[in-house]
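Internal tracking record. Fields below are filled automatically when a chain is submitted to the structure queue. Please do not edit lines marked as system-generated. If the sequence contains nonstandard residues, flag them in the REMARKS field before resubmitting.
Queue: standard
Priority: normal
Entity type: single polypeptide chain
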Amino acid sequence: MSTVPVGDQGIPVEVMLRQAGLRRRRGELVALQLQAQQRNWERIFDTIVRVDGPLAKDIAEITGLGGSTVTGVLQRMEEKNLITREPVASDGSKRVGRSARVRVVAGRHYLAGVEIRRDGLTGLIVDLRGEPVGEPRELALAPVRGPMDVDLLVDGVRDLVDELTLSLRALRDDAQAPLLGLGVELGGHIDGRSGEVVCSPDLQWGEHWAIPRVPLRRLLRAATRLHTVVDNDANALGTAQRWFGAARNEDSFLMVLVTRDGVGACEFRDGQPHRGATGKAGELGHVVAVPGGEPCRCGNRGCVEAVATMSAIVKAADAKDLAEARTRAADRDAGARKAFVDAGTALGRGLASMITCIDPAKIIFTGDAVTASESDAQRLVLYSDDYHEAMLRAVDEYTVFSGPPPGSFLLIQDREHWNGPRGAATMVIRDVIAGAVDVGATAER
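SYSTEM-GENERATED OUTPUT FOLLOWS
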Protein backbone atom coordinates (compact mmCIF):
# COMPACT_ATOMS: atom_id res chain seq x y z
CA MET A 1 0.00 0.00 0.00
CA SER A 2 1.51 3.33 -1.11
CA THR A 3 1.31 6.41 1.06
CA VAL A 4 1.80 10.08 0.34
CA PRO A 5 4.34 11.72 2.67
CA VAL A 6 2.75 14.50 4.70
CA GLY A 7 4.86 16.82 6.80
CA ASP A 8 3.89 19.52 9.26
CA GLN A 9 3.48 21.97 6.37
CA GLY A 10 1.44 19.61 4.16
CA ILE A 11 2.20 17.42 1.14
CA PRO A 12 5.45 18.28 -0.69
CA VAL A 13 4.67 20.21 -3.87
CA GLU A 14 6.79 17.86 -6.03
CA VAL A 15 4.60 14.93 -4.94
CA MET A 16 1.43 16.74 -5.98
CA LEU A 17 2.98 17.80 -9.29
CA ARG A 18 3.98 14.20 -9.99
CA GLN A 19 0.44 12.99 -9.22
CA ALA A 20 -1.07 15.73 -11.40
CA GLY A 21 1.18 14.68 -14.27
CA LEU A 22 0.06 11.08 -13.87
CA ARG A 23 -3.63 12.09 -13.92
CA ARG A 24 -3.01 14.26 -16.97
CA ARG A 25 -1.44 11.36 -18.86
CA ARG A 26 -4.43 9.22 -17.95
CA GLY A 27 -6.75 11.88 -19.33
CA GLU A 28 -8.30 12.52 -15.93
CA LEU A 29 -7.52 16.24 -15.77
CA VAL A 30 -9.96 18.50 -17.53
CA ALA A 31 -9.69 22.27 -17.52
CA LEU A 32 -11.62 23.61 -14.55
CA GLN A 33 -13.48 26.04 -16.78
CA LEU A 34 -14.61 23.19 -19.06
CA GLN A 35 -15.65 21.11 -16.05
CA ALA A 36 -17.77 23.97 -14.74
CA GLN A 37 -19.33 24.54 -18.17
CA GLN A 38 -20.23 20.86 -18.54
CA ARG A 39 -21.68 20.76 -15.04
CA ASN A 40 -23.83 23.81 -15.79
CA TRP A 41 -25.19 22.12 -18.91
CA GLU A 42 -25.96 18.96 -16.92
CA ARG A 43 -27.72 20.87 -14.14
CA ILE A 44 -29.83 22.84 -16.61
CA PHE A 45 -30.77 19.82 -18.73
CA ASP A 46 -31.44 17.80 -15.57
CA THR A 47 -33.94 20.46 -14.53
CA ILE A 48 -35.62 20.62 -17.94
CA VAL A 49 -36.03 16.83 -17.97
CA ARG A 50 -37.47 16.58 -14.47
CA VAL A 51 -39.66 19.69 -14.35
CA ASP A 52 -42.78 20.18 -16.46
CA GLY A 53 -42.11 23.07 -18.84
CA PRO A 54 -40.02 25.44 -16.70
CA LEU A 55 -39.32 29.02 -17.74
CA ALA A 56 -35.73 30.27 -17.99
CA LYS A 57 -36.18 32.16 -14.71
CA ASP A 58 -37.46 28.97 -13.05
CA ILE A 59 -34.36 27.08 -14.20
CA ALA A 60 -32.11 29.83 -12.83
CA GLU A 61 -33.85 29.73 -9.45
CA ILE A 62 -33.87 25.93 -9.23
CA THR A 63 -30.21 25.52 -10.22
CA GLY A 64 -28.88 28.65 -8.50
CA LEU A 65 -27.19 29.74 -11.74
CA GLY A 66 -27.23 33.29 -13.06
CA GLY A 67 -29.90 34.29 -15.55
CA SER A 68 -27.38 35.14 -18.25
CA THR A 69 -25.69 31.74 -17.82
CA VAL A 70 -29.00 29.92 -18.17
CA THR A 71 -30.02 32.01 -21.19
CA GLY A 72 -26.71 31.33 -22.95
CA VAL A 73 -26.85 27.59 -22.32
CA LEU A 74 -30.48 27.38 -23.46
CA GLN A 75 -29.60 29.16 -26.67
CA ARG A 76 -26.79 26.71 -27.44
CA MET A 77 -28.98 23.74 -26.53
CA GLU A 78 -31.65 25.04 -28.89
CA GLU A 79 -29.10 25.43 -31.69
CA LYS A 80 -28.19 21.75 -31.22
CA ASN A 81 -31.90 20.80 -31.30
CA LEU A 82 -31.72 19.38 -27.76
CA ILE A 83 -34.54 21.54 -26.45
CA THR A 84 -37.49 23.47 -27.77
CA ARG A 85 -39.07 26.65 -26.40
CA GLU A 86 -42.79 27.26 -26.59
CA PRO A 87 -43.10 31.05 -27.05
CA VAL A 88 -46.62 31.56 -25.75
CA ALA A 89 -47.21 34.65 -23.60
CA SER A 90 -50.01 35.05 -21.09
CA ASP A 91 -52.00 37.16 -23.57
CA GLY A 92 -51.86 34.39 -26.18
CA SER A 93 -49.40 36.11 -28.47
CA LYS A 94 -46.27 34.39 -29.77
CA ARG A 95 -43.14 35.69 -28.14
CA VAL A 96 -39.70 34.14 -27.64
CA GLY A 97 -38.01 35.09 -24.41
CA ARG A 98 -38.16 34.51 -20.69
CA SER A 99 -41.87 33.64 -20.95
CA ALA A 100 -41.17 30.60 -23.16
CA ARG A 101 -41.55 27.17 -21.59
CA VAL A 102 -38.56 24.92 -22.15
CA ARG A 103 -38.92 21.24 -23.02
CA VAL A 104 -36.69 18.48 -24.33
CA VAL A 105 -37.19 17.77 -28.04
CA ALA A 106 -39.41 14.82 -28.83
CA GLY A 107 -37.68 13.76 -32.06
CA ARG A 108 -34.56 14.17 -34.20
CA HIS A 109 -32.14 12.51 -31.76
CA TYR A 110 -32.32 8.85 -30.76
CA LEU A 111 -30.26 6.48 -28.65
CA ALA A 112 -30.06 2.72 -28.23
CA GLY A 113 -30.02 0.97 -24.87
CA VAL A 114 -29.14 -2.69 -24.36
CA GLU A 115 -29.45 -4.86 -21.27
CA ILE A 116 -27.04 -7.81 -21.12
CA ARG A 117 -28.00 -11.02 -19.34
CA ARG A 118 -26.51 -14.47 -19.54
CA ASP A 119 -29.55 -15.82 -21.40
CA GLY A 120 -30.04 -12.93 -23.80
CA LEU A 121 -30.18 -9.25 -24.68
CA THR A 122 -32.99 -6.71 -24.52
CA GLY A 123 -32.70 -3.60 -26.68
CA LEU A 124 -34.71 -0.40 -26.96
CA ILE A 125 -34.57 2.91 -28.83
CA VAL A 126 -35.41 6.05 -26.84
CA ASP A 127 -35.53 9.76 -27.59
CA LEU A 128 -33.91 12.49 -25.47
CA ARG A 129 -36.92 12.46 -23.15
CA GLY A 130 -36.29 8.83 -22.36
CA GLU A 131 -39.50 7.80 -24.13
CA PRO A 132 -39.37 4.45 -25.94
CA VAL A 133 -39.68 4.48 -29.72
CA GLY A 134 -41.20 1.24 -30.89
CA GLU A 135 -41.19 -2.00 -28.96
CA PRO A 136 -38.24 -3.57 -27.13
CA ARG A 137 -36.39 -6.24 -29.09
CA GLU A 138 -35.06 -9.47 -27.63
CA LEU A 139 -32.14 -11.55 -28.76
CA ALA A 140 -31.63 -14.93 -27.13
CA LEU A 141 -28.12 -16.17 -26.46
CA ALA A 142 -27.29 -19.85 -26.76
CA PRO A 143 -26.69 -21.55 -23.39
CA VAL A 144 -23.01 -21.94 -22.60
CA ARG A 145 -21.09 -23.63 -19.84
CA GLY A 146 -18.49 -21.47 -18.19
CA PRO A 147 -17.60 -17.89 -19.15
CA MET A 148 -19.59 -16.10 -21.83
CA ASP A 149 -17.66 -15.79 -25.09
CA VAL A 150 -16.73 -12.11 -25.47
CA ASP A 151 -16.78 -12.04 -29.26
CA LEU A 152 -20.14 -13.83 -29.38
CA LEU A 153 -21.64 -11.27 -27.04
CA VAL A 154 -20.25 -8.30 -28.97
CA ASP A 155 -21.62 -9.73 -32.23
CA GLY A 156 -25.01 -10.18 -30.58
CA VAL A 157 -25.15 -6.56 -29.39
CA ARG A 158 -24.12 -5.31 -32.84
CA ASP A 159 -26.83 -7.39 -34.54
CA LEU A 160 -29.45 -6.17 -32.07
CA VAL A 161 -28.46 -2.52 -32.60
CA ASP A 162 -28.69 -3.01 -36.37
CA GLU A 163 -32.18 -4.46 -35.96
CA LEU A 164 -33.24 -1.58 -33.71
CA THR A 165 -31.90 0.97 -36.18
CA LEU A 166 -33.89 -0.53 -39.05
CA SER A 167 -37.07 -0.56 -36.97
CA LEU A 168 -36.50 3.06 -35.95
CA ARG A 169 -36.12 4.25 -39.53
CA ALA A 170 -39.32 2.42 -40.44
CA LEU A 171 -41.18 4.26 -37.67
CA ARG A 172 -39.73 7.78 -37.83
CA ASP A 173 -39.12 9.98 -40.85
CA ASP A 174 -36.69 12.13 -38.84
CA ALA A 175 -34.44 9.18 -37.97
CA GLN A 176 -32.23 9.06 -41.06
CA ALA A 177 -29.15 10.31 -39.18
CA PRO A 178 -27.11 7.78 -37.18
CA LEU A 179 -28.00 7.07 -33.57
CA LEU A 180 -26.32 9.41 -31.09
CA GLY A 181 -24.96 6.53 -29.11
CA LEU A 182 -25.32 3.16 -27.43
CA GLY A 183 -25.78 2.53 -23.72
CA VAL A 184 -25.14 -0.94 -22.29
CA GLU A 185 -25.86 -2.16 -18.79
CA LEU A 186 -25.09 -5.43 -17.03
CA GLY A 187 -24.64 -6.71 -13.51
CA GLY A 188 -21.24 -6.69 -11.86
CA HIS A 189 -18.26 -4.50 -11.11
CA ILE A 190 -18.01 -2.09 -14.04
CA ASP A 191 -15.39 0.63 -14.32
CA GLY A 192 -17.64 3.37 -15.67
CA ARG A 193 -14.68 5.56 -16.59
CA SER A 194 -13.00 3.04 -18.88
CA GLY A 195 -16.04 0.95 -19.76
CA GLU A 196 -14.22 -2.20 -18.69
CA VAL A 197 -15.99 -5.11 -17.00
CA VAL A 198 -13.84 -5.91 -13.98
CA CYS A 199 -16.06 -8.72 -12.72
CA SER A 200 -19.45 -10.06 -13.80
CA PRO A 201 -20.58 -13.20 -11.96
CA ASP A 202 -23.49 -13.58 -14.38
CA LEU A 203 -21.21 -13.72 -17.43
CA GLN A 204 -18.37 -15.32 -15.45
CA TRP A 205 -15.89 -12.63 -16.35
CA GLY A 206 -13.23 -11.59 -13.86
CA GLU A 207 -10.08 -12.81 -12.19
CA HIS A 208 -11.98 -15.69 -10.56
CA TRP A 209 -12.59 -17.09 -14.09
CA ALA A 210 -9.21 -15.96 -15.51
CA ILE A 211 -10.91 -13.33 -17.71
CA PRO A 212 -9.92 -10.04 -16.05
CA ARG A 213 -11.03 -6.58 -17.21
CA VAL A 214 -12.93 -7.13 -20.44
CA PRO A 215 -12.71 -3.85 -22.47
CA LEU A 216 -16.38 -4.04 -23.41
CA ARG A 217 -16.88 -0.37 -24.29
CA ARG A 218 -13.92 -0.36 -26.68
CA LEU A 219 -15.07 -3.59 -28.33
CA LEU A 220 -18.66 -2.42 -28.76
CA ARG A 221 -17.61 0.97 -30.05
CA ALA A 222 -15.46 -0.71 -32.70
CA ALA A 223 -18.28 -3.10 -33.63
CA THR A 224 -21.11 -0.52 -33.83
CA ARG A 225 -19.14 2.66 -34.58
CA LEU A 226 -21.31 4.43 -32.01
CA HIS A 227 -20.38 6.45 -28.95
CA THR A 228 -20.75 3.79 -26.25
CA VAL A 229 -21.33 3.84 -22.50
CA VAL A 230 -21.06 0.68 -20.38
CA ASP A 231 -22.21 0.75 -16.77
CA ASN A 232 -23.64 -1.27 -13.91
CA ASP A 233 -27.34 -2.19 -14.19
CA ALA A 234 -28.33 -0.52 -10.90
CA ASN A 235 -26.52 2.69 -11.90
CA ALA A 236 -28.43 2.75 -15.19
CA LEU A 237 -31.80 2.07 -13.59
CA GLY A 238 -31.18 4.71 -10.95
CA THR A 239 -30.33 7.29 -13.61
CA ALA A 240 -33.55 6.52 -15.49
CA GLN A 241 -35.60 6.84 -12.30
CA ARG A 242 -33.83 10.07 -11.38
CA TRP A 243 -34.62 11.72 -14.71
CA PHE A 244 -37.86 10.12 -15.82
CA GLY A 245 -39.36 8.15 -12.94
CA ALA A 246 -40.03 7.86 -9.25
CA ALA A 247 -36.87 9.67 -8.12
CA ARG A 248 -37.46 12.86 -10.13
CA ASN A 249 -37.80 14.87 -6.93
CA GLU A 250 -35.00 13.10 -5.05
CA ASP A 251 -31.37 14.19 -4.90
CA SER A 252 -30.31 11.53 -2.39
CA PHE A 253 -31.63 8.01 -2.75
CA LEU A 254 -30.61 4.36 -2.95
CA MET A 255 -31.64 2.29 -5.95
CA VAL A 256 -31.91 -1.43 -5.14
CA LEU A 257 -32.30 -3.97 -7.96
CA VAL A 258 -33.43 -7.47 -6.94
CA THR A 259 -33.58 -9.93 -9.83
CA ARG A 260 -34.09 -13.69 -9.91
CA ASP A 261 -30.44 -14.38 -9.10
CA GLY A 262 -28.83 -11.05 -8.29
CA VAL A 263 -28.93 -8.02 -6.01
CA GLY A 264 -27.44 -4.67 -6.98
CA ALA A 265 -27.61 -1.14 -5.63
CA CYS A 266 -26.58 2.39 -6.52
CA GLU A 267 -26.38 5.41 -4.27
CA PHE A 268 -27.22 8.81 -5.72
CA ARG A 269 -25.63 11.89 -4.17
CA ASP A 270 -26.78 15.33 -5.27
CA GLY A 271 -28.48 13.70 -8.23
CA GLN A 272 -25.36 11.86 -9.42
CA PRO A 273 -24.56 8.13 -9.14
CA HIS A 274 -21.73 7.45 -6.74
CA ARG A 275 -19.44 4.83 -8.27
CA GLY A 276 -16.53 4.86 -5.83
CA ALA A 277 -12.86 4.81 -6.74
CA THR A 278 -13.04 1.82 -9.11
CA GLY A 279 -16.76 1.52 -9.92
CA LYS A 280 -17.84 -1.10 -7.39
CA ALA A 281 -19.65 1.16 -4.91
CA GLY A 282 -23.09 -0.17 -4.04
CA GLU A 283 -22.37 -3.88 -4.49
CA LEU A 284 -25.07 -4.84 -1.98
CA GLY A 285 -25.35 -8.31 -3.45
CA HIS A 286 -21.83 -9.18 -2.36
CA VAL A 287 -22.04 -7.94 1.20
CA VAL A 288 -21.63 -11.04 3.39
CA ALA A 289 -24.89 -11.51 5.32
CA VAL A 290 -24.37 -15.10 6.51
CA PRO A 291 -20.67 -15.85 7.17
CA GLY A 292 -19.82 -19.31 5.85
CA GLY A 293 -23.21 -19.57 4.15
CA GLU A 294 -24.12 -20.73 0.67
CA PRO A 295 -21.45 -20.28 -2.04
CA CYS A 296 -21.91 -17.19 -4.17
CA ARG A 297 -21.26 -16.77 -7.89
CA CYS A 298 -18.51 -14.29 -7.03
CA GLY A 299 -16.47 -16.98 -5.24
CA ASN A 300 -17.25 -15.96 -1.64
CA ARG A 301 -19.78 -17.56 0.69
CA GLY A 302 -22.86 -16.14 2.39
CA CYS A 303 -23.25 -13.06 0.17
CA VAL A 304 -26.67 -11.41 0.09
CA GLU A 305 -27.02 -12.54 -3.52
CA ALA A 306 -26.38 -16.16 -2.55
CA VAL A 307 -28.81 -16.34 0.37
CA ALA A 308 -31.56 -13.80 -0.41
CA THR A 309 -32.61 -14.44 -4.01
CA MET A 310 -34.98 -16.85 -5.75
CA SER A 311 -32.56 -19.76 -6.06
CA ALA A 312 -31.81 -19.65 -2.34
CA ILE A 313 -35.53 -19.57 -1.47
CA VAL A 314 -36.40 -22.48 -3.77
CA LYS A 315 -33.51 -24.58 -2.47
CA ALA A 316 -34.28 -23.92 1.20
CA ALA A 317 -37.99 -24.63 0.68
CA ASP A 318 -37.20 -27.83 -1.27
CA ALA A 319 -39.56 -26.63 -3.99
CA LYS A 320 -39.43 -27.02 -7.77
CA ASP A 321 -39.83 -23.28 -8.38
CA LEU A 322 -40.73 -19.99 -6.71
CA ALA A 323 -44.44 -20.35 -7.45
CA GLU A 324 -44.60 -23.63 -5.52
CA ALA A 325 -42.68 -22.11 -2.62
CA ARG A 326 -45.08 -19.15 -2.50
CA THR A 327 -48.13 -21.42 -2.62
CA ARG A 328 -46.85 -23.61 0.19
CA ALA A 329 -45.93 -20.57 2.29
CA ALA A 330 -49.43 -19.13 1.76
CA ASP A 331 -50.81 -22.49 2.97
CA ARG A 332 -48.78 -22.02 6.18
CA ASP A 333 -46.14 -24.64 5.35
CA ALA A 334 -43.48 -24.07 8.03
CA GLY A 335 -40.49 -24.98 5.86
CA ALA A 336 -41.52 -22.74 2.99
CA ARG A 337 -42.28 -19.81 5.29
CA LYS A 338 -38.89 -20.20 6.98
CA ALA A 339 -37.16 -20.13 3.59
CA PHE A 340 -38.77 -16.77 2.77
CA VAL A 341 -38.15 -15.36 6.25
CA ASP A 342 -34.47 -16.36 6.30
CA ALA A 343 -33.87 -14.93 2.82
CA GLY A 344 -35.68 -11.68 3.64
CA THR A 345 -33.72 -11.34 6.87
CA ALA A 346 -30.45 -11.73 4.97
CA LEU A 347 -31.35 -8.97 2.52
CA GLY A 348 -32.42 -6.76 5.44
CA ARG A 349 -29.10 -7.26 7.19
CA GLY A 350 -27.09 -6.28 4.14
CA LEU A 351 -29.38 -3.36 3.42
CA ALA A 352 -29.13 -2.13 7.02
CA SER A 353 -25.35 -1.93 6.70
CA MET A 354 -25.67 0.16 3.56
CA ILE A 355 -28.35 2.42 5.06
CA THR A 356 -26.19 2.98 8.13
CA CYS A 357 -23.25 4.02 5.94
CA ILE A 358 -24.97 6.31 3.45
CA ASP A 359 -28.26 7.36 5.16
CA PRO A 360 -30.35 7.79 1.97
CA ALA A 361 -33.54 9.84 1.95
CA LYS A 362 -35.40 7.16 -0.01
CA ILE A 363 -34.83 3.51 -0.95
CA ILE A 364 -36.33 2.48 -4.30
CA PHE A 365 -36.70 -1.23 -5.15
CA THR A 366 -37.24 -2.69 -8.59
CA GLY A 367 -36.58 -5.93 -10.42
CA ASP A 368 -38.18 -9.34 -10.87
CA ALA A 369 -38.58 -9.81 -7.12
CA VAL A 370 -41.18 -6.99 -6.90
CA THR A 371 -44.62 -8.61 -6.93
CA ALA A 372 -48.14 -8.22 -5.56
CA SER A 373 -48.79 -9.12 -1.93
CA GLU A 374 -50.70 -12.34 -1.25
CA SER A 375 -52.93 -10.53 1.23
CA ASP A 376 -53.49 -7.31 -0.74
CA ALA A 377 -53.19 -7.31 -4.52
CA GLN A 378 -52.82 -3.50 -4.52
CA ARG A 379 -49.66 -3.62 -2.37
CA LEU A 380 -46.23 -4.47 -3.74
CA VAL A 381 -43.71 -6.59 -1.83
CA LEU A 382 -40.42 -8.35 -2.47
CA TYR A 383 -41.04 -12.04 -3.30
CA SER A 384 -43.79 -12.57 -0.68
CA ASP A 385 -45.35 -11.09 2.45
CA ASP A 386 -43.14 -13.27 4.68
CA TYR A 387 -39.97 -12.23 2.83
CA HIS A 388 -40.86 -8.54 2.75
CA GLU A 389 -41.85 -8.29 6.40
CA ALA A 390 -38.71 -10.16 7.47
CA MET A 391 -36.61 -7.75 5.40
CA LEU A 392 -38.26 -4.72 7.02
CA ARG A 393 -37.79 -6.16 10.52
CA ALA A 394 -34.10 -6.82 9.87
CA VAL A 395 -33.57 -3.29 8.53
CA ASP A 396 -35.14 -1.82 11.67
CA GLU A 397 -33.16 -4.15 13.93
CA TYR A 398 -29.73 -3.80 12.35
CA THR A 399 -29.67 -0.17 11.21
CA VAL A 400 -27.68 1.86 13.74
CA PHE A 401 -29.66 4.21 16.04
CA SER A 402 -32.93 3.98 14.09
CA GLY A 403 -34.35 2.57 10.91
CA PRO A 404 -35.44 4.61 7.90
CA PRO A 405 -38.38 6.96 8.54
CA PRO A 406 -41.89 5.96 7.38
CA GLY A 407 -42.42 6.38 3.64
CA SER A 408 -38.75 5.85 2.80
CA PHE A 409 -39.31 2.59 0.90
CA LEU A 410 -40.79 2.62 -2.60
CA LEU A 411 -41.33 -0.44 -4.82
CA ILE A 412 -41.65 -0.21 -8.60
CA GLN A 413 -42.92 -3.03 -10.79
CA ASP A 414 -41.49 -3.01 -14.30
CA ARG A 415 -44.05 -5.11 -16.16
CA GLU A 416 -42.75 -4.23 -19.62
CA HIS A 417 -39.12 -4.98 -18.66
CA TRP A 418 -37.77 -2.08 -20.69
CA ASN A 419 -36.46 0.08 -17.88
CA GLY A 420 -33.08 -1.66 -18.03
CA PRO A 421 -32.39 -0.70 -21.65
CA ARG A 422 -34.01 2.70 -21.03
CA GLY A 423 -31.61 3.30 -18.16
CA ALA A 424 -28.66 2.26 -20.32
CA ALA A 425 -29.67 4.76 -23.01
CA THR A 426 -30.09 7.46 -20.38
CA MET A 427 -26.41 7.11 -19.52
CA VAL A 428 -25.64 8.21 -23.09
CA ILE A 429 -27.90 11.26 -22.73
CA ARG A 430 -25.62 12.40 -19.91
CA ASP A 431 -22.66 12.23 -22.28
CA VAL A 432 -24.60 14.14 -24.94
CA ILE A 433 -25.26 16.97 -22.51
CA ALA A 434 -21.67 16.92 -21.20
CA GLY A 435 -20.42 17.46 -24.76
CA ALA A 436 -18.81 14.05 -25.16
CA VAL A 437 -21.00 13.31 -28.20
CA ASP A 438 -20.95 15.37 -31.38
CA VAL A 439 -24.66 15.99 -31.89
CA GLY A 440 -24.05 17.38 -35.36
CA ALA A 441 -22.17 14.31 -36.61
CA THR A 442 -23.68 12.79 -39.74
CA ALA A 443 -21.11 10.18 -40.71
CA GLU A 444 -22.70 7.01 -41.95
CA ARG A 445 -22.22 3.87 -39.92
